Amino acid sequence: xxxxxxxxxxxxxxxxxxxxxxxxxxxxxxxxxxxxxxxxxxxxxxxxxxxxxxxxxxxxxxxxxxxxxxxxxxxxxxxxxxxxxxxxxxxxxxxxxxxxxxxxxxxxxxxxxxxxxxxxxxxxxxxxxxxxxxxxxxxxxxxxxxxxxxxxxxxxxxxxxxxxxxxxxxxxxxxxxxxxxxxxxxxxxxxxxxxxxxxxxxxxxxxxxxxxxxxxxxxxxxxxxxxxxxxxxxxxxxxxxxxxxxxxxxxxxxxxxxxxxxxxxxxxxxxxxxxxxxxxxxxxxxxxxxxxxxxxxxxxxxxxxxxxxxxxxxxxxxxxxxxxxxxxxxxxxxxxxxxxxxxxx
Length: 345
Prior knowledge:
The chain has 345 residues and is α/β, with parallel strands linked by helices.
Protein backbone atom coordinates (compact mmCIF):
# COMPACT_ATOMS: atom_id res chain seq x y z
CA UNK A 1 0.00 0.00 0.00
CA UNK A 2 1.29 3.50 -0.86
CA UNK A 3 2.43 5.77 1.89
CA UNK A 4 0.25 8.84 2.35
CA UNK A 5 2.12 11.92 3.57
CA UNK A 6 1.11 15.56 3.99
CA UNK A 7 3.18 18.68 3.36
CA UNK A 8 2.71 22.31 4.38
CA UNK A 9 4.58 25.61 4.44
CA UNK A 10 4.44 27.95 7.45
CA UNK A 11 5.71 31.37 8.50
CA UNK A 12 6.96 34.02 6.11
CA UNK A 13 7.57 33.10 2.49
CA UNK A 14 11.13 32.62 1.25
CA UNK A 15 12.67 31.95 -2.14
CA UNK A 16 13.00 28.17 -2.50
CA UNK A 17 9.80 26.98 -0.82
CA UNK A 18 8.38 25.76 -4.12
CA UNK A 19 11.67 24.08 -4.95
CA UNK A 20 11.35 22.00 -1.76
CA UNK A 21 7.76 21.06 -2.63
CA UNK A 22 8.88 20.10 -6.14
CA UNK A 23 11.67 17.87 -4.82
CA UNK A 24 9.33 16.10 -2.39
CA UNK A 25 6.79 15.51 -5.17
CA UNK A 26 9.35 14.27 -7.68
CA UNK A 27 11.12 12.03 -5.20
CA UNK A 28 8.24 10.89 -3.02
CA UNK A 29 5.46 10.63 -5.60
CA UNK A 30 7.40 10.24 -8.83
CA UNK A 31 9.98 7.75 -7.58
CA UNK A 32 8.49 6.10 -4.49
CA UNK A 33 4.81 6.19 -5.56
CA UNK A 34 3.60 7.93 -2.40
CA UNK A 35 0.34 9.77 -2.09
CA UNK A 36 1.12 13.38 -1.19
CA UNK A 37 -1.46 15.83 0.12
CA UNK A 38 -0.65 19.53 0.23
CA UNK A 39 -2.14 21.39 3.20
CA UNK A 40 -2.88 24.98 2.22
CA UNK A 41 -2.17 28.01 4.43
CA UNK A 42 -0.06 26.13 6.99
CA UNK A 43 -1.95 24.39 9.81
CA UNK A 44 -5.03 26.49 8.98
CA UNK A 45 -5.71 24.08 6.14
CA UNK A 46 -6.42 21.26 8.61
CA UNK A 47 -8.31 23.36 11.16
CA UNK A 48 -10.51 25.59 9.00
CA UNK A 49 -13.85 24.37 7.66
CA UNK A 50 -13.91 23.34 4.96
CA UNK A 51 -10.36 22.02 5.09
CA UNK A 52 -8.03 23.29 2.37
CA UNK A 53 -6.16 20.36 0.83
CA UNK A 54 -4.81 19.50 -2.61
CA UNK A 55 -3.34 16.32 -4.06
CA UNK A 56 0.19 16.91 -5.38
CA UNK A 57 1.45 14.94 -8.38
CA UNK A 58 4.45 15.40 -10.70
CA UNK A 59 2.47 17.49 -13.16
CA UNK A 60 1.89 19.94 -10.26
CA UNK A 61 5.58 20.83 -10.44
CA UNK A 62 5.78 22.66 -13.76
CA UNK A 63 7.83 25.83 -13.33
CA UNK A 64 8.18 25.45 -9.56
CA UNK A 65 11.96 25.36 -9.36
CA UNK A 66 12.33 29.04 -10.20
CA UNK A 67 9.00 30.28 -8.83
CA UNK A 68 8.99 32.39 -5.68
CA UNK A 69 6.44 32.18 -2.89
CA UNK A 70 4.63 28.91 -2.17
CA UNK A 71 1.84 27.19 -4.11
CA UNK A 72 0.47 25.94 -0.77
CA UNK A 73 0.13 29.39 0.75
CA UNK A 74 1.36 30.27 4.22
CA UNK A 75 0.46 32.24 7.32
CA UNK A 76 2.24 33.67 10.34
CA UNK A 77 -0.89 33.24 12.47
CA UNK A 78 -1.51 29.52 12.05
CA UNK A 79 -0.53 28.19 15.48
CA UNK A 80 -2.93 25.32 16.27
CA UNK A 81 -2.14 25.69 20.00
CA UNK A 82 -3.47 29.25 19.95
CA UNK A 83 -5.54 29.58 16.82
CA UNK A 84 -7.21 32.75 15.63
CA UNK A 85 -10.51 31.82 17.35
CA UNK A 86 -8.72 31.76 20.71
CA UNK A 87 -8.97 28.00 21.11
CA UNK A 88 -6.41 25.19 21.21
CA UNK A 89 -6.90 23.04 18.10
CA UNK A 90 -3.69 21.00 18.36
CA UNK A 91 -5.53 17.75 19.03
CA UNK A 92 -7.68 18.38 15.94
CA UNK A 93 -4.58 18.24 13.73
CA UNK A 94 -3.78 14.68 14.74
CA UNK A 95 -7.41 13.56 14.48
CA UNK A 96 -7.82 15.00 10.98
CA UNK A 97 -4.59 13.44 9.75
CA UNK A 98 -5.71 10.05 11.08
CA UNK A 99 -9.14 10.43 9.48
CA UNK A 100 -7.54 11.31 6.14
CA UNK A 101 -5.14 8.38 6.35
CA UNK A 102 -2.10 10.69 6.38
CA UNK A 103 0.71 9.14 8.43
CA UNK A 104 2.60 12.38 9.03
CA UNK A 105 3.47 15.89 7.88
CA UNK A 106 6.52 17.33 6.18
CA UNK A 107 6.58 20.82 7.69
CA UNK A 108 8.59 23.55 5.95
CA UNK A 109 9.13 26.65 8.06
CA UNK A 110 11.24 28.74 10.38
CA UNK A 111 11.85 28.58 14.11
CA UNK A 112 8.23 29.23 15.04
CA UNK A 113 6.90 26.55 12.71
CA UNK A 114 9.54 24.08 13.89
CA UNK A 115 8.57 24.70 17.53
CA UNK A 116 4.92 24.05 16.70
CA UNK A 117 5.88 20.84 14.88
CA UNK A 118 8.04 19.61 17.76
CA UNK A 119 5.28 20.33 20.26
CA UNK A 120 2.66 18.55 18.14
CA UNK A 121 4.79 15.42 18.13
CA UNK A 122 5.74 15.62 21.80
CA UNK A 123 2.28 16.39 23.17
CA UNK A 124 -0.06 14.80 20.64
CA UNK A 125 2.01 12.13 18.89
CA UNK A 126 1.71 13.72 15.43
CA UNK A 127 4.40 12.48 13.06
CA UNK A 128 6.32 15.50 11.75
CA UNK A 129 9.45 15.97 9.67
CA UNK A 130 10.95 19.46 9.52
CA UNK A 131 12.55 21.37 6.65
CA UNK A 132 14.20 24.62 7.83
CA UNK A 133 13.29 27.86 6.10
CA UNK A 134 14.19 31.42 7.07
CA UNK A 135 15.81 34.19 5.11
CA UNK A 136 17.30 35.41 8.42
CA UNK A 137 19.53 32.29 8.52
CA UNK A 138 19.18 32.17 12.30
CA UNK A 139 18.29 28.51 12.90
CA UNK A 140 21.14 27.09 14.95
CA UNK A 141 20.81 23.45 13.91
CA UNK A 142 21.70 24.04 10.25
CA UNK A 143 24.69 25.83 8.76
CA UNK A 144 22.42 27.58 6.27
CA UNK A 145 18.79 27.86 5.27
CA UNK A 146 17.45 28.28 1.76
CA UNK A 147 16.24 31.76 0.88
CA UNK A 148 19.04 33.47 2.79
CA UNK A 149 21.44 33.98 -0.09
CA UNK A 150 18.61 35.04 -2.40
CA UNK A 151 17.77 37.75 0.15
CA UNK A 152 21.45 38.73 0.31
CA UNK A 153 21.49 39.00 -3.50
CA UNK A 154 18.54 41.40 -3.27
CA UNK A 155 20.37 43.57 -0.73
CA UNK A 156 23.55 43.55 -2.80
CA UNK A 157 21.68 44.55 -5.97
CA UNK A 158 19.92 47.37 -4.12
CA UNK A 159 23.21 48.69 -2.74
CA UNK A 160 24.78 48.59 -6.21
CA UNK A 161 21.92 50.71 -7.52
CA UNK A 162 21.83 53.09 -4.55
CA UNK A 163 25.60 53.58 -4.68
CA UNK A 164 25.34 55.47 -7.97
CA UNK A 165 22.64 57.78 -6.63
CA UNK A 166 24.48 58.41 -3.37
CA UNK A 167 27.69 59.22 -5.23
CA UNK A 168 25.98 61.45 -7.79
CA UNK A 169 24.23 63.56 -5.12
CA UNK A 170 26.82 63.39 -2.30
CA UNK A 171 24.18 61.75 -0.13
CA UNK A 172 24.13 59.41 2.80
CA UNK A 173 21.61 56.64 2.11
CA UNK A 174 20.35 54.42 4.93
CA UNK A 175 19.09 51.01 3.81
CA UNK A 176 16.98 49.01 6.26
CA UNK A 177 17.03 45.25 5.69
CA UNK A 178 15.40 42.26 7.36
CA UNK A 179 16.88 40.50 10.36
CA UNK A 180 14.52 40.23 13.30
CA UNK A 181 17.01 38.85 15.83
CA UNK A 182 20.14 38.20 13.78
CA UNK A 183 22.13 40.42 11.45
CA UNK A 184 23.27 37.90 8.85
CA UNK A 185 21.44 39.56 5.94
CA UNK A 186 22.80 42.99 6.89
CA UNK A 187 26.36 41.70 7.36
CA UNK A 188 26.58 39.54 4.23
CA UNK A 189 24.60 41.94 2.05
CA UNK A 190 26.49 44.96 3.37
CA UNK A 191 29.90 43.45 2.71
CA UNK A 192 28.85 42.25 -0.76
CA UNK A 193 27.36 45.64 -1.63
CA UNK A 194 30.25 47.75 -0.36
CA UNK A 195 28.42 49.40 2.55
CA UNK A 196 30.41 51.85 4.65
CA UNK A 197 28.46 51.24 7.87
CA UNK A 198 26.62 48.06 8.90
CA UNK A 199 24.47 48.06 12.02
CA UNK A 200 23.50 44.73 13.57
CA UNK A 201 20.98 43.66 16.25
CA UNK A 202 23.87 41.97 18.06
CA UNK A 203 25.85 45.21 18.54
CA UNK A 204 24.17 48.44 19.76
CA UNK A 205 25.35 51.41 17.74
CA UNK A 206 26.90 54.70 18.80
CA UNK A 207 26.06 57.77 16.73
CA UNK A 208 29.50 59.30 17.30
CA UNK A 209 31.20 56.29 15.67
CA UNK A 210 28.90 56.57 12.65
CA UNK A 211 29.57 60.32 12.36
CA UNK A 212 33.32 59.71 12.60
CA UNK A 213 33.10 57.25 9.71
CA UNK A 214 31.18 59.72 7.55
CA UNK A 215 33.69 62.47 8.36
CA UNK A 216 36.59 60.15 7.54
CA UNK A 217 35.09 59.51 4.13
CA UNK A 218 34.59 63.24 3.53
CA UNK A 219 38.24 63.86 4.36
CA UNK A 220 39.18 61.23 1.76
CA UNK A 221 37.11 63.02 -0.87
CA UNK A 222 34.17 60.60 -0.60
CA UNK A 223 31.27 62.83 0.55
CA UNK A 224 28.68 60.05 0.27
CA UNK A 225 28.01 56.87 2.24
CA UNK A 226 25.83 53.77 2.38
CA UNK A 227 24.57 52.60 5.78
CA UNK A 228 22.93 49.17 6.09
CA UNK A 229 20.70 48.73 9.14
CA UNK A 230 19.17 45.43 10.28
CA UNK A 231 15.52 45.96 11.21
CA UNK A 232 16.14 45.33 14.93
CA UNK A 233 19.40 47.23 15.33
CA UNK A 234 19.27 49.60 18.29
CA UNK A 235 21.30 52.50 19.69
CA UNK A 236 23.37 52.13 22.83
CA UNK A 237 21.04 52.37 25.80
CA UNK A 238 17.99 52.07 23.55
CA UNK A 239 15.42 49.38 22.95
CA UNK A 240 15.13 47.18 19.89
CA UNK A 241 12.25 48.33 17.67
CA UNK A 242 11.74 46.03 14.71
CA UNK A 243 10.66 47.97 11.63
CA UNK A 244 11.83 51.35 12.93
CA UNK A 245 15.59 50.82 13.09
CA UNK A 246 16.44 52.71 9.92
CA UNK A 247 14.39 55.73 10.95
CA UNK A 248 16.14 55.83 14.33
CA UNK A 249 19.50 56.11 12.54
CA UNK A 250 18.21 58.78 10.17
CA UNK A 251 16.75 60.84 13.04
CA UNK A 252 19.96 60.57 15.07
CA UNK A 253 22.09 61.68 12.13
CA UNK A 254 19.79 64.60 11.32
CA UNK A 255 19.97 65.82 14.91
CA UNK A 256 23.75 65.49 14.94
CA UNK A 257 24.38 66.87 11.43
CA UNK A 258 21.42 68.99 10.22
CA UNK A 259 23.24 69.85 6.99
CA UNK A 260 23.67 66.19 6.00
CA UNK A 261 21.76 65.17 2.86
CA UNK A 262 20.30 61.85 3.96
CA UNK A 263 17.69 59.48 2.51
CA UNK A 264 16.29 56.14 3.63
CA UNK A 265 15.21 53.04 1.70
CA UNK A 266 13.39 50.12 3.34
CA UNK A 267 13.77 46.97 1.26
CA UNK A 268 11.08 45.10 3.21
CA UNK A 269 9.38 42.26 1.39
CA UNK A 270 11.49 42.71 -1.73
CA UNK A 271 13.96 40.48 0.10
CA UNK A 272 11.42 37.66 0.38
CA UNK A 273 10.00 37.79 -3.11
CA UNK A 274 11.08 36.66 -6.53
CA UNK A 275 12.99 33.67 -7.80
CA UNK A 276 15.52 31.82 -5.65
CA UNK A 277 19.10 32.03 -6.83
CA UNK A 278 21.01 28.95 -8.02
CA UNK A 279 22.42 28.10 -4.59
CA UNK A 280 19.01 28.21 -2.93
CA UNK A 281 17.42 26.13 -5.70
CA UNK A 282 20.02 23.43 -5.16
CA UNK A 283 19.85 23.57 -1.34
CA UNK A 284 16.04 23.49 -1.35
CA UNK A 285 16.09 20.50 -3.70
CA UNK A 286 18.59 18.69 -1.48
CA UNK A 287 16.44 19.40 1.58
CA UNK A 288 13.31 18.09 -0.16
CA UNK A 289 14.96 14.86 -1.27
CA UNK A 290 16.50 14.34 2.17
CA UNK A 291 13.09 14.86 3.81
CA UNK A 292 11.65 12.07 1.67
CA UNK A 293 14.50 9.75 2.62
CA UNK A 294 14.07 10.46 6.34
CA UNK A 295 10.35 9.73 6.11
CA UNK A 296 11.11 6.54 4.18
CA UNK A 297 13.41 5.51 7.03
CA UNK A 298 10.72 6.28 9.60
CA UNK A 299 12.73 9.08 11.18
CA UNK A 300 9.80 11.27 12.14
CA UNK A 301 10.63 13.92 14.69
CA UNK A 302 13.74 15.06 12.82
CA UNK A 303 14.63 18.10 10.73
CA UNK A 304 16.88 18.09 7.69
CA UNK A 305 19.95 20.29 8.08
CA UNK A 306 23.08 21.34 6.21
CA UNK A 307 26.19 20.55 8.22
CA UNK A 308 29.73 20.77 6.90
CA UNK A 309 28.45 20.50 3.35
CA UNK A 310 26.31 17.41 3.98
CA UNK A 311 22.55 17.05 4.47
CA UNK A 312 21.77 15.25 7.74
CA UNK A 313 18.81 14.71 10.03
CA UNK A 314 18.79 16.28 13.49
CA UNK A 315 16.15 15.77 16.21
CA UNK A 316 13.55 18.54 16.20
CA UNK A 317 14.11 19.07 19.92
CA UNK A 318 17.73 19.94 19.14
CA UNK A 319 16.78 22.03 16.13
CA UNK A 320 14.56 24.38 18.15
CA UNK A 321 16.79 24.60 21.21
CA UNK A 322 18.69 27.73 20.26
CA UNK A 323 18.75 30.23 17.42
CA UNK A 324 22.00 31.51 15.93
CA UNK A 325 23.18 35.11 15.89
CA UNK A 326 26.18 36.82 14.33
CA UNK A 327 29.43 35.95 16.12
CA UNK A 328 30.92 39.35 16.86
CA UNK A 329 34.32 37.73 17.40
CA UNK A 330 34.07 35.69 14.20
CA UNK A 331 35.96 35.83 10.94
CA UNK A 332 33.25 37.62 8.93
CA UNK A 333 32.99 40.51 11.38
CA UNK A 334 36.78 40.74 11.41
CA UNK A 335 36.75 40.78 7.60
CA UNK A 336 34.25 43.64 7.55
CA UNK A 337 36.38 45.69 9.90
CA UNK A 338 39.56 44.86 7.95
CA UNK A 339 38.10 46.45 4.81
CA UNK A 340 37.04 49.57 6.71
CA UNK A 341 33.40 48.88 7.48
CA UNK A 342 32.16 50.65 10.61
CA UNK A 343 29.89 48.46 12.76
CA UNK A 344 28.83 51.34 14.97
CA UNK A 345 29.74 49.88 18.34
